[in-house]
Sequence to fold (614 residues):
Amino acid sequence: MAGVDGFVNGIREVGKSDRRSIHGSTEEVNDDYGRLRLEMAGGGSFGVGEVEEPGGRSRHGGTEEMNVGNGMLRPDMASAGVGGIGVGEVERPGGRSRHGSTEEVNADHGGLLPETEILTVCTPQGHAQVRISPTRMGQTWRGWGTSLGWFANYIGKLPPDQLTHLLDLLFHPSKGLGLNLARYLIGGSFNPLLSPQFLTEACEAMAIPGYRVTASGPYDWSADSRQRRVLAGAIARGVDEVEAVAYSPPWWMTVSGDTAGLSVGKTNLKKGYYLAYAGYLADVVAHFREQWNVTFSTLNPANEAMEGWWVRGNRQEGCNFNATELNMLVAHVVGTLKTRQMLDRTGVAGFDSFAGRTFQNWEEFSPLVKSALSRINVHGYVPPPKNGTDARAYIEGKFGPLRKRAEALGKEVWVSEMGPLFVTGDDMAVTAFIARCIIQSVNILGASAWVFWQAINKESEADPSALNWGLFTIPYNRINNSTAPPLRVTLSRKYYMLQQFIQGAPKGSLPLNIEAANGCHHSIAAFFHPRRHLLSVFIVNQDVAEYNVSVSISSFGVFNRAISATIEVNRTSYNEAGSRISSANYEVVPSSLRVVAPGNSVTSVLVSNVDALD
Fold:
């Protein structure tokens, strides 16, 4: 992925010599109810300092502020005033918005939607016994990432110092999370007369420029410079795989002329334009590789197309396709890439729908299309079960059958989009929910990569729940405003939780089998990285009660041999933000670890110098 000359100007390469430690601190921390306020002199000017967290672990500095108080997700995100980043509204049948909810919300600590069941760590007795098997469970882990699109369309306009800091927080391996996957959105552009909603401040970041704005006009390869600037910076910091996705055909290929959609369940792509649309996408993919040295690993021509909720006037791009129409579109895309000798470098992924929907419609796809897919992309959202339905069985019914199909075909499964849909509550409640979804994606769906929806959201003083949608928030102003507001970053608990997963399960790790009863595989996951000799265990406790978890690693023989094994335990909770915890919270006995998992927490255990798998 190196060598993006000509792709974008002004992006500094970040090499090994530029990496820095994230440890050390001078700032004062207020840990009341998990509120971490990180302030530096300068009244909004942004430096990259180091800040001490609750528990003594340092992270990132600057003018960041972390507010993890009792903010809650508004019942209706449509009026949340959060700009257009990460919370775009699309009305669904039944009145549910694309990123929100109409249900009553309980804002107490950990309050969830009434129909959402809190899954405890395995057992109501307060103690869980788990054995980590050295048997690898699935595909080699490919990594962690984020969609670009909307937030990149905004931050790509920021001054170099501000953009550099934000890119470091997300993609730098030592200054930030070190995300290694990125999902680039090929925009459909819009006609202001037919899609006036994209001119508003609330939606302008969702309007991704296309590369050909009229049917007869030439390609404009200067378009979408802001998102491309972010992509270049991500690659410079270590992103090693980029996939491309299109939410809608260009507006002039649509029936309505509006890239937001047509009507419920109706495709917006004009008849006779399937091949033209495939050609447009292939042109974009080819230009990225030939002119900007960016090769997309996969291309997906649709996004949540089978869900059917994309309608004219909505606040984000989308296009409905039923299974038959989507089968035809994917076949055209595969054929076009093959004819142009591009398929060996850029495969086709499908279908970027909910797991249950993908499995439900699987038999309607032709054998040619199913065999041609490079991998199966799934959105990790799972609507809550009806009252009285066992939540664990419900999840397994959605994820399990698709996993079996994928394994039978030898296909990888990626969670190509996931965020806090179908959950509400404060920042820690949402964080624990997302962490559990990650574990379910690994253990039940068999995913080999996990991609967050929108990493950065617009801050909103009127709506603290804006923090729930991004890994962190920043102030926004109009995209066309050449003066950016002072940069203020508010890190969420999700940021630190995800850092725990990335640290413990980097690219190249092997998911391991969890041997336990009582649904522990919904709340506990384990990985082993053979090159780094790193064993990691992740424990999510969404209950209010504390749990003691005994983890047997006897199969690894770590403590019975003359090697120097080290243990590091980190936690995110109401009082901790990815903090290293003291040995009083865990105990090492021969071939076993005993870990305290407080209520509403995500705990990671990292054991280094572990023998290779038997």
